[in-house]
Amino acid sequence: MLPFDILEYQDRIKQTKQKMAERSIDVLLITDPANMYYLSGYDAWSFYVHQMLVLIIDESQPLWIGRYMDANGARATTWIYDENVIAYPDEYVHSSTHHPMQFMAEILEQIGQGNRRIGVEMDHYYFTAKAYQTLVSCLPNATFVSGDLLVNQVRMIKSDQEIEYMRGAAKIAENAMLHGVNSIFRGVRECDVAAQISYHSIAGTDQYGGDYPSIVPMLPSGERTGMPHLTWSERAFMEGDSIIIELAGCYKRYHVPLARTVNIGPASEKLDRIAPIVIEGIEKVLDAVKPGITCSEIEEIWRNSIKKYGFEKEARLGYSVGLNYPPDWGEHTASIRRDDHTVLLPNMTFHFIPALWFDHYGIEISETIRVTDTGCETFTDFPRELIIRDGYATPSQDGKIS
Amino acid sequence: MLPFDILEYQDRIKQTKQKMAERSIDVLLITDPANMYYLSGYDAWSFYVHQMLVLIIDESQPLWIGRYMDANGARATTWIYDENVIAYPDEYVHSSTHHPMQFMAEILEQIGQGNRRIGVEMDHYYFTAKAYQTLVSCLPNATFVSGDLLVNQVRMIKSDQEIEYMRGAAKIAENAMLHGVNSIFRGVRECDVAAQISYHSIAGTDQYGGDYPSIVPMLPSGERTGMPHLTWSERAFMEGDSIIIELAGCYKRYHVPLARTVNIGPASEKLDRIAPIVIEGIEKVLDAVKPGITCSEIEEIWRNSIKKYGFEKEARLGYSVGLNYPPDWGEHTASIRRDDHTVLLPNMTFHFIPALWFDHYGIEISETIRVTDTGCETFTDFPRELIIRDGYATPSQDGKIS
C-alpha cells in the first residue's frame, strides 16, 4: 500500500539526518504534512489539528504523534512500527485549556529528548506561534533551532518513482485543462467550469485516479484576470471575456500545474500583442534550462526577452514544485528570480509561470518542467497559445453534467 | 459585489472592537482568512503567503497588508479604501532573506502603532512561529497579547444574511450527497465518487453557484471507514463494502457539512446494529437543543442515549460551523463535549457529527443545525438512515462523465 519502496524511505531518512547533523539538530519535529508524507507515508486530511513526525538522529524509526482518531490511519499508511504511533485524546483538540504541544512535549521528555537540540519548522503553516511557545515553555532544558525547509531541500531532487507520479499528474492536468477549456461558452458560469476541472482532476484517468490538488482551480475572467488569486464566482461568461485557467493534476500528492489563457471570441489588441511575447520568452527559457544554470540566470533570460518589447515583471517566474498539501503546491525552496542562485540539477522540477498582470487584464501560460541530464522537458503536452473559444453552448454543452 | 451590506461590516467591526477593549488590545492583527473575509470582504486563495488585516481600536477602517500581486484583488473584494491596501514586493515571498512580517512591522511602526498592545492570532495556521518571532523582534516597544479566536467568537452568532447563505450551502450539500450516493456501484473507484461530489459541490445549483468547501470530500470505504481522515484512493468498491461520505456545501464561504454512511449490498451485523443507535441518539439531541442549553448538556444526552447499548464515544460530537477557509470548516470556538460549557443562543450553528469509529469499521451520520428561538432546525433534508446501494453500474452509470 506504500507509494514508495521501503529503501526509498530509508534513503530519505538518511539524507534528512545528514542535513540535521550539518545544522547540529538532534531531534527534528516535522509538522509540514508534505514532509510527514515524504518520510513516513502518512497521508490524511488531519493537518487541521496539531500533529508531527519526530525524527531523532540516533533512532532508526520516526515517531508519529497526532490525534487519537487519526492513529489508525497513521498505522495503515506508514511504514513505521505501530508502537511508534502515539495519540493524544480529543480533549486537546481546539480547546482553550489543553494544547496538543503540551502532550507532545511530555512525550519528548519521557523518551529522554527534553534536553536536546530540537529543530522546528518555524515558518510552516501548521506550526503556529502558540505551538512553538507551548513547546518552548514545556521543554525548558531543550534548545530550539530552525529546521525550516530542511526536509524540503531533500525533496528538491526527485527520484525516478516521484517523476513517474508526476507523469501521471501531467496526464490528469492535460485532461482537466482540455475539459475545462471545452466547457467555456458564453452564458456558462465560472463555477460550472471550475466544477468540470475539479471533476477531471479528481477522477483522473483510467490509469491514474486523481488526488486533490493543493490549490483549487483558479479561474478569473474579464477584469478579474488582473487579480490572480481570486477564486471563481457565479458570473456568466460574456462575448470578449478572457479567462485565465490555472490548475494542477495531482497523483499520490505529486503535482503538475498548468496555466493557459482563453478568450471568448477575438481577443483584445492588448492581449493579442502580449501573448506571443510571453510565448517567445517561455521558449527562450526552455531552450536554456539545463543542469548548472541558476534560477537567477533563467530570470535574466526571461527579463531580456520581454524587455525588448517594453515589458517587465514584478513577481518571481516560478518555483520548485512536486509533493505538497493545501494551501500550496510550491515547495518553498528555490524560486526563479533575480536573487536566487540555486543551481539546477537533474530531476529538479519547476513550475515555470511567467504570468503578466495589469490593472484590468492579465495572461498566464505556464509549463511544469523537469531538468534532464542535458536540458529540460515539459511534463504536459498542451498547445502553448492563447486559446480562442467561439460559439454558444448547445443544450448538451451547457457546462453541466447530470 | 460585496456579500454583505456595509452596515453589517460596520457592526462586525464594532463588536470586534468591543472584544478588543475587553482584552485591552489596541491593534488586532488578523491573519485568519475567515476573519479577514468576515471583517473586510477579502476573498482570495492568497493565504499561502503571509497577509493580514490590521484593526486599530481608534481608527474606523482596517488596513489590508499583503502581496503586491494580490492588492488589486483586495481593492476589488473589500469595502475598505484603496489607500488602506498596502502591498509588499515579491522578494518577500518564500525567501530565506526577507520575511513579510519585517515589512508589516515597518508599516505598523510608520503609522504610529509600534508601541501599542498588539493582539495576534497565536494558534492560527496562517500565523507561524516565525511570523510571530519576526514581529516581536522588529517591534521591540510593542506588547504582544493573544487575540486568539477573538473574531471567531463574534462569528458564532450568525446574521440573517449569513443564515441565508448557509441555506444555499445546504441545497448544494443535499445535491452533492444525492449525486455522490447515486454514483456508488461495485467496481466504481473511490476517486470517481469523490469527483462527482466535487463537481456538484462546486457547480452548485442554478440558484446557488458553489464555492469550494474548506475540506475535500471524505470517502473512506471498507476497513478504512475506521480511519476518518484518510482521503479517497483508486480502490474500486466491492460487494459488502461500507462507505462513509462526509462533505459540505459551501456558498460564499459559508459551509453546511453533511455525513452519511452507505453500504453496497446488505450491511454487516455490526453496522446494522449500530446505525439505529446513532440515529436514536441524534434524534434525542435534536429534540433537546434550544437556547440556554450548554454544549456539555448536549453531550450528556448523547452519552446516556448510547450508553444503554454499551457504547461510548471518545471524540467530541460536533462544533460551531459556518464561514471558513482551508484546512477546516469548523470555527474552533465551541465544541459539543463534556467540558465545554458554552450556552447555546439563537442563530448559533453547529455541525453535529456523533460518528463512531472502531478498528475495522465506522459510522457517520450528521446534521448541521441552527439554534432557533425555541429549539433547533436542520439545514438539510436528507434521509437519516444507513443507505443501501445495490446492483452493478450500467455503462451509462459508471460514475464517469464525459
TrEMBL record, chains A, B:
Domain Creatinase N-terminal: 12-157
One Pfam short name: Peptidase_M24
Residue span, Peptidase M24 domain: 164-373
SUPFAM superfamilies: Creatinase/aminopeptidase, Creatinase/prolidase N-terminal domain
Protein's UniProt name: M24 family metallopeptidase
Organism expressing this protein natively: Radiobacillus deserti
